[in-house]
Amino acid sequence: MASSDGKLLSLMAGKMGINSDKALKRASEFLRLLQLKVTASSGLRQFSDTSRVVMCLDLACNKLGYPFDKSNLLKLAGLNKKLYSNGLNLIENLLDLSKPVNINTLCVQLGVSEVASHAQKILDKYVELHAQGPNGARPIDTNMPIYHCASVFMACKHNKVKVDRSQLIEASRVKKVQFDKLIEDFVPVLDNMGPKEVKKSASKRSHKLIDLVTKYDEESKGTENEEEAGQKESSDAEKEDFEVWKKRILGEAYEAN
To answer: Which GO MF terms are attached to this record (predicted)?
Structure first.
């Protein structure tokens, strides 16, 4: 990499708050490889040297898991959000950096791991129904991110789990209209699926039951203290019956957990 590029890299890294030598070295390597990819048809010429440096630094930190302040990325790169995202995807593809998008990874990133299994079943069912339809002769490339993103979205919708739709569209690497069209194609899949698979925990109900038993126990003890000494024998018998009832109720509550 030319010395001028090295100076620009150091300058942008400073403005981005990146002081990791490993990140700088990785970004420098990305830039060097990128120079070999610059052709009339590569699409890179629409991005300035500064833009490429910023995006390579962003990718380097992302691959190394190095956190930094991304609030001024677009300003430093001189790009709007859409162009910046397109530039990142372009560089990732040219350098073979893009990680395959799959259901499990998406669910972890979006905090909806509970629907991962259901999303996979939805995708499998979609492939099955597609093979039976008029377009069945044309196989589906399930390695494409859009199918995994659509499956996760439909699983969340089916189970009423909140998810950021915009993040799924971005991860799908297609336009919103294409994503929405595929979602429509997925609707018949839900009609062929069973009931919701994400079960709500019974812990709340169990805790309420335990609290009720505890409260009743405390009230029973308070009542016993207020009883006259002559009624103690009768009270002991009632307490014994209550202990049997309490043991049974608590046992059922813990089994529900």
So the answer is: DNA binding
CATH number of the domain located at residue range(s) 4-95 in this protein? 1.10.472.10
For residue 91, the one-letter residue type is I
The reported pLDDT for the residue numbered 202 is: 40
Architecture field, domain 103-193: Orthogonal Bundle (1.10)
The C-alpha atoms of residue 151 and residue 221 are separated, in whole angstroms, by 55
Q: What is the DSSP string of 198-221?
A: -PPPSHHHHHHHHHHHHHHHHHHH
pLDDT recorded at residue 54: 95
Domain ranges of the chain: 4-95, 103-193
pLDDT digits (tens, 9 = 90+) for 66-88: 888 888 999 999 999 999 999 98
Number of H helices, E strands in the chain: 12, 0
Q: Mind listing the pLDDT tens digit for each residue in 102-121?
A: 899 889 888 999 999 999 99
Q: How many other C-beta atoms can be found within 10 angstroms of the C-beta atom of residue 177?
A: 8
